[in-house]
Design brief:
The complex is a heterotrimer of chains A (303), B (283) and C (366). Chain B has helices spanning 7-42, 46-49, 63-70, 72-105, 111-123, 126-139, 146-170, 174-183, 187-195, 200-216, 219-224, 232-242, 247-267, 269-282. With 283 residues, chain B is mainly α. Chain C folds into two domains: 4-233, Rossmann fold (3-Layer(aba) Sandwich), CATH 3.40.50.300; 240-358, OB fold (Dihydrolipoamide Acetyltransferase, E2P) (Beta Barrel). Chain C contains nine helices and 20 strands. Chain C has helices spanning 42-50, 92-102, 107-121, 136-148, 166-183, 194-200, 218-223, 228-233, 266-272, and strands spanning 4-13, 16-26, 31-35, 57-62, 65-66, 77-80, 154-158, 186-191, 203-208, 211-216, 240-249, 252-256, 261-263, 279-284, 289-293, 303-313, 317-324, 327-334, 344-349, 355-358. In chain C, strand 11 (240-249) and strand 12 form a beta hairpin. The longest helix of chain C is centred in the middle third of the chain and has 18 residues, at 166-183. Chain C is elongated, with a radius of gyration of 25 Å. Classes of the chains: A mainly alpha (303), B mainly alpha (283), C alpha+beta (366).
Chain lengths: 303, 283, 366
């Protein structure tokens, strides 16, 4: 081995090292930016959570250490928000995966007309979530005049309190989110299924007792990586969902649809209680990190 | 697919393709109809909108569009959204494209740690960023500025753009770069004259994603903007909150917000779908 | 033009050693070919000479300087890649002119050089086209032109003809040789195709497993292989190998398997004395087994009768696969030879042309 003077690593000619330094400068601006705009604020967030920082009565602002967190533990609204978040996240991800997968399975062997399908299916995902929420609130779910409600009345099922009654409201925002994002799962699964080699599938047709068997034991294991990725992506998005819920229900009625994200917002920017809001934000951050670590571990061990 | 001769499975296949066709139209309906309905409503006269049963054939009018644009907020909202989105897209590309190149091609020091950091940056929940940023920006009187909003929007666009550009640069054959090394290109020219010209398509798609992300964004905008820099999503929200039953101007504004994005998406739909699903299939 | 010397070159990829203690001297103006199966390290050596790989140990000399630390563009070399690596977004002219533009050569000089080179290669009327508008052969020529334009001291070719179809490959082979005659630039050429190597090289370096197995002219490699690998690699169809025991008989030494028994010529017997009672590997080329012969015409020495297992018709000749006990022998016969699958036929082995290899070391014994 050639070693440079006093170096422990294998020898690298100067021109290679210059190339690497050049590479470093190419990423420097973006890394610097992310550090300042993403990493640094999070540190500030955690620090802020240790303060009493109420913009409506600034006289009382001071360092309080962990008091905000203690208060949080006793805050029933916080625990309610956690519950709603859990229901919301779990339901939307489950619905997206099941619906997306079922639809992809239905379509993956028929190629005719997939172009038009792709466009219609792309549509919801590129719309502004705030517009989607508002549109559902007005055009679709308004009693009598919203087309969904009108449809229900027409079916004889009667008008429903879509966004008005607490349980219905939670159900409705779940529907809205699922409506907007199931296409993602659908497209990913479709791509994944289309990419599978035909031979094992054909062999399975002869071996398996019925289609369901074939699905469970042959197809599902083969697309497992795609399913995992979809679950991870969608969970992360569900945790940070904001605009659609905010515009459809505002978190209400009351706190029926108030996921932790929304509670944090209301506390920070409606009540202007930034200290406590920061504590709530930090909790959400911690939850996000824990969930992704969990998924990370799961992916590492299973692949 | 292997053909079976028995009549029973023949019937089964017929039934199956019937279900699939039905599903096909149902899907298109479920996902395209709401958008279609919003667009339709925007052209209905005031009383027409609230007629039951809802009508599809009617005499169209553009009165709501005119009203929406004349409501000062909304026109300036669209203009502001455009300014911010363009700024975000431009600066994102400037810093993310070289980064994508470097990550995909060069073994620079700390590379692995930095790519992990970029991944982490994507995980930060927006509410976690907006609270400190709001606090800090209010201290230095930078609320209601374009700069502030562009900067924070970029936290959404930069990590994903870097990741997308990495995949595009990775598709270039290594021998192309090696031939250029032998031909004596400088480091920068390797990027500018050899790699970049071959990924313009990818740059375009990245730009589209960044633009859409910024154009549609709501949370950061609603917190950080004021009367001067209010973007369209904030404007439309404020409008409906104030005048709940004014569906006409609301849908007109909605169309104004959705239209540019839909048009762009129609043109580049293949690439957009590819960009979205790529991460999932490549794992 | 310059000579190239590799001194104790070693290249490791992490824990894997691709090439170890590689020594080679390439003469000025020579057309040297590195040939061997995939993964033998030949591309690694070529890329190390180019500077695209940094060697872990050793020295590389081009001309009279050591180039270990020298950037590839300053080594005065040019390389032609297997997939041509033309810049897709530039037309032919720009592809060829690119290296000169990086060196800031004046424009009219560039035009001059590119014009001359493109005329030499017959692509002068393609200068405005993009690579996607060219055929495989044309792209290959542009890649060549790009290399020639740099007036290098050494040409490096990395399996340049592998992506062409068979017919085009043969045409390009002669063109490359013609070019070499004209330009007389030292050329180092990598290929896995031994036929290509045999027809083109002044000298061949046969490699496997990161080591040199033998360096020599094509004819010498064919006639005098020093080990089992080279003997089996060079020549098409490949040499037949049969493991047999050496036994002493009244007339001299015999090489025997259960189905075959050949007398070893006297001049070889000396070298094989040590192997009496042991097994060696007998090598015999298809053209050195003659037949089919009718039973009466043959004198029993070195003849054998076996079943015809397969007949391949090449038009000009036939390749007959024979089964003798556990071994299969491939024989070249005249095109109208009377052999039928499944029947027995008699052949004679010209033992003077046989090779004997040590079973363990795989070296040539005699």
């Amino acid at each position: 081995m050639i070693y440079g003077k006093g170096q422990k690593k294998p020898y690298k000619p100067e021109y290679l090292r210059r190339h690497e330094r050049f590479g470093f400068w190419m990423i420097a601006p973006s890394m610097f930016f992310l550090f300042i705009m993403a990493a640094f604020p999070l540190i500030i967030l955690v620090i802020m959570s240790g303060f009493q920082l109420d913009l409506t009565c600034p006289a009382g602002n001071r360092w309080v250490g962990l008091d905000n967190y203690i208060e949080m533990m006793r805050d029933s609204r916080f625990w309610h928000a956690m519950k709603v978040t859990a229901i919301y996240t779990f339901s939307t991800v489950l619905l997206q995966v099941i619906t997306g997968l079922a639809l992809a399975m239905a379509f993956f062997r028929s190629f005719r007309g997939q172009g038009i399908l792709r466009v219609s299916v792309l549509l919801p995902m590129i719309l502004a979530p705030v517009v989607v929420g508002l549109a559902f609130r007005t055009m679709i779910m308004t009693p009598e005049y919203g087309i969904l409600d009108y449809f229900f009345i027409w079916l004889g099922l009667g008008s429903k309190p879509w966004l008005v009654a607490p349980n219905w409201a939670l159900f409705s925002v779940i529907i809205i989110h699922t409506w907007q994002w199931t296409p993602f799962a659908f497209l990913v699964f479709l791509a994944s299924l289309n990419g599978l080699p035909m031979e094992p599938l054909e062999a399975a047709q002869l071996d398996a007792r019925n289609s369901w068997q074939r699905f469970c034991h042959v197809i599902l294991p083969m697309i497992r990586p795609a399913v995992v990725i979809v679950i991870i992506f969608r969970t992360m998005i569900a945790l940070r969902a904001f605009a659609a819920i905010f515009s459809a229900t505002g978190g209400g009625p009351g706190t029926a649809t108030e996921i932790l994200n929304l509670y944090t917002y209301r506390e920070s920017f409606n009540s202007l209680n930034l200290g406590y809001g920061a504590a709530l934000g930090t909790s959400l951050l911690v939850i996000t990190v824990l969930v992704s670590m969990f998924f990370f571990r799961m992916r590492k061990s299973r692949i | 697919m292997k053909e079976s001769c028995s009549a029973k499975s023949e019937k089964k296949r017929w039934l199956r393709s019937g279900i699939v066709s039905g599903l096909y139209f149902l899907m298109i309906f479920i996902w395209a109809f709401p958008v279609f309905w919003v667009v339709l409503t925007s052209f209905k006269g005031r009383t027409e909108i609230f007629t039951l049963p809802p009508t599809i054939i009617f005499k169209p009018t553009i009165e709501h569009y005119i009203e929406a644009l004349l409501t000062h907020d909304i026109l300036s909202g669209v203009v502001n959204s455009f300014i911010v989105a363009c700024g975000v897209t431009l600066i994102t590309l400037i810093i993310a494209v070289p980064a994508g190149y470097a990550f995909s091609r060069i073994q620079f020091p700390f590379r692995d740690r930095l790519s992990f950091f970029a991944l982490l940056a994507q995980m930060a929940p927006p509410i976690g960023l907006i609270i400190p940023c709001f606090f800090l920006l209010s201290r230095i009187r930078m609320l209601d500025t374009y700069t502030g909003l562009i900067a924070i929007h970029m936290t959404l666009t930069v990590p994903f753009s870097i990741w997308l550009m990495i995949t595009y640069f990775q598709d270039l054959p290594k021998s192309l770069e090696e031939a250029a090394i032998m031909d004596g290109v400088s480091h920068f020219n390797m990027f500018r004259k050899v790699a970049l010209p071959n990924v313009w398509g990818g740059v375009g798609v990245t730009a589209i994603f960044a633009f859409i992300e910024s154009w549609n964004e709501f949370l950061y905008a609603v917190v950080l903007t004021g009367s001067r820099t209010k973007t369209a999503p904030v404007a439309i929200f404020g409008f409906l909150a104030a005048e709940e039953s004014r569906w006409g101007p609301f849908t007109a504004t909605g169309v104004l917000i959705m239209a540019p994005v839909i048009m762009v998406a129609l043109v580049a739909q293949r690439q957009i779908v590819r960009g979205m699903t790529m991460g999932a299939t490549k794992g | 033009m310059a000579e190239v010397r590799l001194v104790n070159v070693t290249k490791n990829f992490g824990k894997v050693c691709a090439v170890k203690n590689f020594n080679l001297h390439i003469k000025d103006g020579e057309f040297l070919i590195l040939v061997g199966p995939s993964g033998c390290g030949k591309s690694t050596i070529l890329r190390s000479i180019a500077g695209l790989e940094v060697i872990s140990d050793g020295e590389i000399h081009i001309g009279d300087r050591i180039v270990n630390d020298v950037h590839p563009r300053d080594r005065d070399i040019a390389m032609v890649f297997q997939n041509y690596a033309l810049y897709p977004h530039m037309d032919v002219f720009q592809n060829m002119a690119f290296s000169l533009m990086q060196k800031k050569v004046p424009k009219n000089e560039i035009n001059q050089v590119v014009a001359n080179t493109s005329k030499l290669l017959g692509i002068h009327d393609l200068l405005g086209r993009k690579p996607s508008q060219l055929s495989g052969g044309q792209r290959q020529r542009v890649a060549l032109g790009r290399a020639i334009v740099r007036s290098p001291q050494v040409f490096l070719f990395d399996e340049p003809l592998s992506n062409l179809d068979a017919k085009l490959r043969i045409v390009m082979r002669t063109e490359l040789l013609d070019l070499h005659q004209k330009l007389k630039i030292t050329t180092i050429y990598v290929t896995h195709d031994q036929v290509e190597a045999m027809t083109m090289g002044d000298r061949l370096v046969v490699m496997s497993g990161g080591r040199i197995r033998q360096v020599d002219t094509p004819q010498n490699l064919y006639d005098h292989p020093v080990n089992l690998f080279v003997a089996g690699f060079i020549g098409s169809p490949p040499m037949n190998f049969v493991e047999c025991g050496i036994e002493k008989a009244p007339q001299g030494l015999h090489a025997k398997t259960e189905a075959l028994d050949f007398q070893i010529p006297v001049d070889r017997a000396g070298g094989l004395q040590k192997y009496i009672g042991r097994n060696v590997i007998l090598g015999i080329r298809p053209e050195h087994i003659v037949g089919p012969l009718s039973e009466e015409k043959v004198d029993k020495r070195d003849a054998f009768r076996s079943v015809v297992w397969l007949v391949e018709r090449l038009g000009s000749e036939k390749l007959v696969h024979l089964r003798a006990g556990d071994s299969t022998l491939v024989v070249k016969t005249a095109r109208h030879a009377d052999v039928k699958t499944g029947e027995k036929a008699t052949f004679v082995v010209h033992m003077e042309s046989a090779y004997f290899f040590d079973k363990e070391t795989e070296e040539l014994i005699v």
